[in-house]
Amino acid sequence: MAVSINRRKPKPSKKAETNEHCSCATFLFKILSRIPLGILLLILVYLWSSSTTIISGKIVHICVSSRKLNNLYCLSAGTQPKFEIPVPLINNSFTSPGSTSNIKDIDASPGSNSSVAEYVKAASTPEPIADRKEIANALSSSTIGNIKEVANVYTKDSIPAVIDGTDKNRYEEIAIAKKAVKEQLHLHRSWMSNTNHASCDGRGVYVYDLPSKFNKDLIGQCGDMMPWTDFCKYFNNEALGEPIADLGKGWYHTHQYSLEPIFHSRILTHPCRVYNESEAKLFYVPYYGGLDILRWHFKNVSGDVKDSLAMDLMKWLEHRRPWVQNSGTDHVFVLGKISWDFRRKDYTSWGTRFLELEQMQNPIKLLIERQPWEVNDIAIPHPTFFHPHSDDDIVAWQQKIIGTARKNLVSFAGAARPDQPESIRSTLINQCTSKSSDKCQFLDCKSGGCDQPESVTKLFLESEFCLQPPGDSPTRKSVFDSLVSGCIPVLFDPFTAYYQYPWHLPEDHGKYSVFIDQEEVRQMKVNVVGRLSSISARERDDMRRYIVYELLPGLVYGDSSCRFEKFQDAFSITVNTLLERVSRMQ
User: Fold this and answer.
1) Could you tell me the CA-to-CA distances from 365 to 60, 360, 476 in Å, in that order?
2) Banded model confidence at residue 475, pLDDT cuts 50, 70, 90
3) Which of 25, 190, 411, 472 counts the highest number of beta carbons within 10 A?
4) Strand order from edge to edge, sheet including 488-491
C-alpha cells in the first residue's frame, strides 16, 4: 500500500543538515563495522534472493515473495518528483489522491464495505455502474449472501415496504444481478445429458495443431515463471507433477495452475477425436493462456507485450475455416487461471485482455473460476492431487474415505489475510484455536504447512467439516481437496462454489456443503464451531456418503491414459456436455 502524505515542516539549514547526515553516517558505519563480513554478505544475499523489483510505468515496486504466487508484500514509490501513487480505498480498489469514488454509493447493505473487487486483482476494480453486469461486478458477494431471501424472487413491486429510496434501488439491483446469475446457471445445466453416449457418430472433436509458441514453448519457460520456486517439476508426468508415494496409487503433487496441459493431454486421446475438420462438431484450441500470463508476472513489460501472443492467436484463427464459419461458437478454450486475470482494465497492468477481445465473446471458456455474469464463462473443477487410472482406483479410494475415523469435528487449512480488512479468516482462526474449543484443528499455511499435499489430505481425511473462506478470489482449490477427502466443505460466500460449477456440483448445495454467511462471522454473530456442533451425526453421514459416492468421481481428472467404464470423471463430464451443447446448436 502506498500512501501520499504532504506535511510542511520548517526547512533545516544546510549546516544542520550536513551535521545530521555526518552523524547518521558515522553511527551506521560503526554498526556495520561490528558485523562480521560473512554474516553481512549472507544477509545481503538473502534480501536479494527473496525480493523482486518491478517497474510499472512511473511506479517502482520492491516485493518480497511469500508462500503463494498471489501473496507478495510490496513497497511502492514513484520514479518522478511529486508523482501521486494511487491509494487503495478498499483492498484492491484504487483511486488517486483528490479523486472521488462511488464505492460507498454501490454498497448494498448497511455496514457492508466490501465489493467483488476484494476478490480480484487491481485489474478488475469495478468501474462506475452503468449496466447490469457492472452493477453485479460491483456488488459485494457477502451482501448478496446476506439478502438471499430478498434476491431470490424480488421484483420492483415485491421489494419490502420498509425499504425505500436508495436502499430500495440497491436491493433491486442485487435482485436483478443474482437472478441473472441463476438464469445463466440454469442454462448451463440444461446442456447436460443423462445419456452416456457409446458412439462418437456426429460427435467429433477436432484439436487444432497450434504452433508450439502457444503451448509447449510456454511450458519450456517454466524455470523463469516463479523466481522463488522450481515450477518445472509440476509439469512432469503430463503436468500431473511428481507421484506422492505416501498417499498411494494415483496421487501426484499437482499445481493449481496445471489445468491447461492436463486437459490437453486428455483430449488428444479422446475416443471422439477426429483429424478432419469437416467431421467435427467441437473445436478445441490448446492455448495455454494461464501460463502466458504467468511468464510476464514479474517482468517489466507493457500491456501490448502481454497481449501479443493472444493477438497472434486471433490472427492465426482468422485464417481457419471452422473459426470463421460459426464465429467461434463451436470452439472451446481451457484456461487454468481465474477469469479476472484475462480481463485487464486500462488503468492497471495485471493480466491480459484476452477475454475482453471481441473475437472471444462467442467461444466457450472453461476456467477454474468464471466471471459470474459472462454466459460463455464456465467453471470446471480445480485439479486436485488425485488422478485415478481406472474405476478400481476410485472405488478403493471411496472405501478408504468411508472407513477413516474422523477425530476432528472441524479443520481449517489456510492463513490469515491481515492486508484484507474484510477477510473473515482471522476470526475463523481465532474461533478454531480458542482454548474453549477442542473440536477444531488449524493448519497454518503461512508457515508452509500446506505445501505438502500429504499434510493437507491427512487433515481433511480426519475432519468432519472443512472451513473454506474466500482467499485471493472467491473460489478455492481447497474446496475440491476437501470433497475428494470426504470432508464436508463449509462455505461463507455463494460465489465460492454455488455460482461456479454447474456441471459438477448440484443445484441443491445443502446435499454436500454447509453455508454460513460471512457477514454473520464478520459481525461476530455466530460461532462457527458451535454452529457445526449442532449438526447431527446422521446428517453428517448422509452428506458424506453423497459426496463420496455421487460427487467424487466427477470432481477428479484421471491420468492421461485412464480408462473408466463405470464412472465419468471431471474431464468426461465436461467434454460430454460440450458435445451435447454443440449438437443442439445444429
Assistant:
1) 34, 9, 19
2) very high
3) 411
4) 440-444, 408-414, 463-468, 488-491, 514-515
